[in-house]
Design a protein that fits this description.
The complex is a heterodimer of chains A (122) and B (429).
Chain A lengths: L12 H6 L2 H6 L3 E5 L5 E4 L1 H7 L3 H4 L4 H5 L9 H6 L3 E11 L2 E11 L6 E6 L1
Antiparallel strand pairs in A: 1-2, 1-5, 3-4, 4-5
Chain B lengths: L5 H11 L3 E5 L5 E4 L1 H11 L7 H4 L6 H7 L6 E10 L13 E10 L2 E8 L1 H21 L5 E6 L5 E4 L1 H7 L11 H5 L10 H11 L1 E9 L5 E11 L9 E8 L5 H11 L9 H18 L3 E8 L2 H8 L1 H16 L7 E6 L2 E7 L3 H16 L3 E3 L2 E3 L3 E7 L7 H17 L14
Antiparallel strand pairs in B: 1-2, 1-5, 3-4, 4-5, 6-7, 6-10, 8-9, 9-10, 11-13, 11-16, 12-13, 14-15
The chains are: A alpha+beta (122), B alpha+beta (429).
């Protein structure tokens, strides 16, 4: 793959789908991919490092109920339900390791794609 | 399982906990918070950010800050299950109104631990139970305490029992043939529905029960449950008469009165709280719908209040809020409700007021606030406020729209230079 600049703003859902686990782990921001039923199937190393959780324990559990309850409201989780095509950046406050942490979230979903993504930039 | 660190397990536990946990200092600055707490706090905090518990809840539970600062013991439980009413309107009837409860424990001079829980579903269930309770209380409590009257379709007393004399002081034989509303002077009482309005509801629903002040013959007020039941022969649509039951409800115990105050009053200013405001709004909306009674709302917001707090400190700010509440409450009509909606924002519910009357009252309140003087160690503190008024007619019966419209006008008043009541262009006749 040719060297293209991958930034928090420019990365597309197709780019993410095409990347290997190693490539996603190398990204400087958190990447969480989850199915329509919100079960997590991608949890990159950056995100694991920020949250303090082992990806092995996060994969397969419902994202908005067990890990990211702080996003389980109309500002994030509801938007994935309401908007089949979604690409938006929102300022947010997460509770990484129980500390209020200001972040930017990028919400990515596309009609016809079963996997959705949340990108997290500290 | 064995190779997971205990720290990681602890984090998993906290991430998944279905109750909000928050640790903060005495000023509310959050040190630790779990995701569930943030789930509720962030949508409330809005642009101001969620780094301070009191600021995040300022709009919906402004009383928390003063409840915490009034707690002087070195450690202990400051509040337990304190209710925070998040939704004021009833526009989204599909889901239950959102209610949170907050418990705060003081662990040291500068350390608080709080929990935040969503109890919306519990509240809905409670309300259903309470309605059933009222019913059973009325049906089962000592039958001898009831004054019962038979009323003709045009509101005249056909007969009354001896208990009516004991309860009200009017001779039950002498009142026969008289207009019940005149005997009871119900149009003068402050609360709730007039008697003829109760008759109207009973005519369509079968019965109506309400509690409110009643007057005895000598003028002494007493708290009374009034049940109106429509009688019909079963074939016609018009009731053939009404039965009215009056019950002298024993004076509430002090604890009960305290609880009532706690549930309906803002502890700092003594104004109605958001919960009471919201409930009254829904009641008045029903009346607007059934009787087409006009209903107006005033919202007001103190101008540059943050400067007062920053310059003179929260205690002086609190004193100013109390003075504003006292001044405005003094101008209220009998059925008006003056409520604290947020930090320095107040709302006034005005049943039977049209727009002109609401605008006039808002102007009186504006003058009263501008005339206030609060003494502070740093000198004299004065205040002004900006006002927006709207009627439920303009909002076509929607409480959400009514609040939004009044808010829009309040902000127009702010933009136009503050210390004013926003005047609506092209007043409707």
């Amino acid at each position: 793959m040719a060297e293209i600049e991958v930034t928090f703003e420019s990365l597309t859902l197709n780019d993410l789908e095409a990347m290997s686990d190693e490539d996603r782990d190398a990204l400087p921001f958190g990447v969480v991919g989850f199915a329509e039923d919100t079960t997590v199937n991608i949890y990159n190393a950056t995100e694991a490092q920020m949250s303090g959780l082992d990806p092995a324990t996060v994969i397969g559990i419902p994202f908005f109920d067990a890990v990211a309850q702080c996003m389980n409201n109309f500002m994030v989780a509801q938007r994935f339900e309401d908007e089949p095509d979604l690409d938006d950046i929102v300022p947010y406050v997460l509770t990484l390791r129980m500390r209020p942490t200001k972040v930017r979230l990028r919400l990515l979903a596309a009609a016809g794609k079963s996997r959705r993504y949340v990108l997290i930039e500290r | 399982m064995s190779d997971r660190s205990s720290e990681e397990e602890l984090l998993e536990f906290l991430y998944a906990c279905p109750v909000g946990l928050i640790e903060c200092d005495a000023a509310g600055e959050i040190g630790m918070i779990n995701p569930h707490a943030m789930q509720h706090l962030l949508p409330l905090a809005g642009a101001s950010g969620a780094s301070n518990l009191f600021s995040a809840l300022q709009q919906h539970a402004p009383e928390l800050r003063s409840v915490v600062s009034a707690f002087t013991a070195p450690i202990g439980r400051i509040c337990d299950g304190h209710r925070i009413f998040v939704d004021l309107g009833v526009g989204r009837r599909t889901s239950a109104p959102k209610v949170l409860t907050c418990t705060i424990v003081k662990l040291g001079p500068d350390r608080l631990m709080a929990t935040l829980t969503d109890v919306s579903q519990q509240i809905v269930q409670e309300q259903r139970l309470r309605q059933a309770d009222t019913w059973f209380a009325t049906l089962l409590d000592g039958v001898h305490d009831y004054a019962t009257l038979e009323i003709t379709p045009d509101g005249k007393i056909a007969s009354a029992n001896a208990c009516f004399t004991r309860q009200t002081g009017f001779n039950h034989l002498e009142v026969t043939g008289q207009d019940l509303a005149k005997v009871l002077r119900t149009e003068e009482t402050g609360g709730d529905l007039r008697l003829e309005e109760q008759f109207e509801i009973a005519g369509s629903d079968g019965w109506h029960l309400q509690e409110g002040w009643q007057q005895r013959a000598g003028g002494e007020p007493y708290w009374c449950q009034r049940l109106v039941v429509a009688r019909s022969t079963g074939d016609g649509t018009m009731p053939t008469g009404f039965s009215v039951v009056l019950r002298d409800v024993p004076r509430r115990e002090e604890a009960g009165a305290d609880l009532q105050r706690l549930l309906t009053r803002d502890p700092l200013t003594g104004s109605a709280n958001r919960r009471h405001f919201s409930q009254s709004m829904e009641q008045e909306q029903t009346r607007w719908r059934e009787f087409r009674q006009s209903l107006s709302l005033i919202v007001l917001d103190l101008d540059h209040f943050k400067v007062v707090n920053d310059t003179h400190g929260h205690p002086i700010g609190d004193l100013l809020l109390c003075s504003v509440a006292t001044a405005c409450a003094g101008l209220l009509p009998p059925r008006g409700i003056f409520a604290r909606l947020g930090g320095e924002e107040f709302g006034v519910i005005l049943p039977r007021y049209d727009r002109e009357q609401a605008l006039d009252l808002a102007e009186e309140m504006r003058k009263a606030i501008a005339a206030l003087v609060v003494q502070s160690p740093g000198g004299i503190v004065k205040a002004t406020a900006s006002f927006g008024c709207a009627t439920l007619d303009e909002a076509e019966g929607s409480i959400d729209d009514l609040l939004a419209l009044a808010d829009t006008r309040l902000y127009a008043a702010k933009r136009d230079g503050r210390n004013r009541v926003h005047q609506v262009e092209g007043r409707a006749a």
